[in-house]
Amino acid sequence: MSGLTIGRRGALALGLAGAVGLALPAWALEAPPADFDNAIGTIVANFMKAFGTPGIAVAIVRKGQPAWLQGYGVRTMGKPAPVDVHTRFGIASNSKAFTAAALAMLVEEKKFGWDEPLTRYLPEFRMHDPAVTGMFTVRDLLVHRSGLPLGAGDLMYFPQSTADTAQVMRGLRFLRPVRGFRTGYDYDNILYIVAGVLIERISGKSWRAFVTERLLAPLGMTDAVASRELLRTDNVAGRHARLGPPVRGIGPMQVVKPDEAPLIDAGGGINASVADIARWLEAQLALGELPGGKRLWSAETAAEMWKPQVIMSSSDGGTDLNPARPVMQGYALGWIVQDFRGRRLISHSGGLSGQVTQTAMIPSAGIGVAVFSNTEDSVSGGIRNAILDHLLGTAPAYDWVASYVARDRQAQAEALSEMSAGDAKPPEGAPSLPLAAYAGRYRDPWYGDIVVTARADGLHIEFVPTRAFQSVLEPWGADSFRTRFPTGAGEDAVVTFAVADGKVTGVRMKALSPLADFSYDFHHLDFVPVR
Question: What is the spatial distance between Cα 354 and Cα 349, in angstroms, rounded to a whole number?
Answer without folding.
Answer: 14
